[in-house]
Automatic annotation (TrEMBL):
PPIases accelerate the folding of proteins. It catalyzes the cis-trans isomerization of proline imidic peptide bonds in oligopeptides. Residues 1-118 form the PPIase cyclophilin-type domain. It comes from Eufriesea mexicana. The keyword Membrane does not apply. Its EC number is 5.2.1.8. This is Peptidyl-prolyl cis-trans isomerase. One of its GO terms (cellular component) is catalytic step 2 spliceosome. Pfam families: Pro_isomerase. Keywords: Isomerase, Nucleus, Rotamase. Part of the activated spliceosome B/catalytic step 1 spliceosome, one of the forms of the spliceosome which has a well-formed active site but still cannot catalyze the branching reaction and is composed at least of 52 proteins, the U2, U5 and U6 snRNAs and the pre-mRNA. Recruited during early steps of activated spliceosome B maturation, it is probably one of the first proteins released from this complex as he matures to the spliceosome C complex. Component of the minor spliceosome, which splices U12-type introns.
Amino acid sequence: MEGYLGDTNFHRIIKGFITQGGDSTGTGEGSKIYGEPFKDKFYTRLRFCRRNLIAMDNAEKNDNVSQFFFTLSSTPDLRKKHTIFGTATGEFIYSMLKLKEALVDEVNLMFSRKYINN
């Protein structure tokens, strides 16, 4: 995924659960930068059993557009709801851990926007 996350805005953090980004507006309202929504894909070997997993965020079944999230812990309730497509590794993990320390408001939106720079 090197080079694909440059200047990604992470707008939502749910402490101990997920860090969400990929919305070019930075509001969580979404933007379709990749065209039409695409279908969910689930694999029996991929499970939400640890932190650092990267998955698509969607509002409903088969509604994947540009938003995604990183798990900050084991999140088994997300199984068969969101498509896992990667794992955070190397130096990127440190950036993600810094994001989880950000201040959030009552609806888990960040007070100051954080970016990941590649």
